[in-house]
Amino acid sequence: MLPVITLIGRPNVGKSTLFNRLTRTRDALVADFPGLTRDRQYGIGRIGPRPYVIVDTGGIGSAAEGIEALMERQVQRAVEEADHLLFMVDTRDGCTPEDVDIARRLRRLGKPITLVVNKSDTMDPTLAVTDFHRLGLGDPWAASATQGLGIRGLIDHVFEQL
Ligand code: GDP
Ligand code: MG
């Protein structure tokens, strides 16, 4: 069974963009992957030596449901099947109250988490991550899903913790 890496985060932080980049090499949808349910997007990818399953939790629920319930369901599903969580934030927004709330919930899960500070192409990567140390999830990882910055290192980092 391949390791399952799950993307978590507010709308518009770049989850689907990162999903597409991480699955580009083997753009397979695996809706029937054993043991996985259907309301998320699954893909198989490989960057570096080993393949993985990547899960995009975006789009769960409806707009009417509200951000609170949406996040609750994302987190709940992540508990069920993820081997590693990628919690994505947007450096342009800085650390928002929703980010703080999601971080609090994720810390309780006891799963390995990497905090990914996306859109780091829009400013100095060192500055991009500074606001996010206070989430208490360890060293934030600067990345750019659109430019491909920090992605290979991120995947290597994930595999080191599996
Ligand atoms: P999601 O709602 O979390 O899935 O976010 P999307 O992947 O749909 O991205 C939301 C917007 O952010 C889109 O306009 C993307 O092109 C943009 N975006 C995503 N990643 C990056 C990035 O690394 N840098 C910049 N500058 N924009 C990004
Ligand atoms: Mg999305």
Strand content: 15-25%
| Amino- and carboxy-terminal Cα gap | 13 Å
Mean pLDDT: 84
Kindly report the spatial arrangement of strands forming the biggest sheet.
Answer: 2-3-4-1-5-6-7
Main sheet? 7 strands, mixed
Structural class: alpha/beta
- Structural domain tally: 1
Rg (C-alpha, Å): 15 Å
Function: GTPase that plays an essential role in the late steps of ribosome biogenesis.
Binding site for GTP 1: 9-16, 56-60, 118-121
Subunit structure: Associates with the 50S ribosomal subunit.
Domain EngA-type G: 3-162
Write the topology of this structure.
Blueprint: E1 4-8, H1 15-22, E2 28-29, E3 41-46, E4 51-56, H2 67-81, E5 84-90, H3 97-109, E6 113-118, H4 125-130, E7 141-142, H5 151-160
Parallel strand pairs: 1-4, 1-5, 5-6, 6-7
Antiparallel strand pairs: 2-3, 3-4
Helix pairs in contact: 2-3
Bound molecules: guanosine-5'-diphosphate and magnesium ion.
Guanosine-5'-diphosphate binds next to helix 1.
Q: What do these coordinates show?
A:
The protein is α/β, with parallel strands linked by helices and 162 residues long. The chain has one domain: P-loop containing nucleotide triphosphate hydrolases (Rossmann fold). It is 32% helix and 21% strand. Strands 2-3-4-1-5-6-7 form a seven-stranded mixed sheet, with helices on both faces. Helix 3 links the parallel strand 5 and strand 6. About 9% of the residues have low confidence.
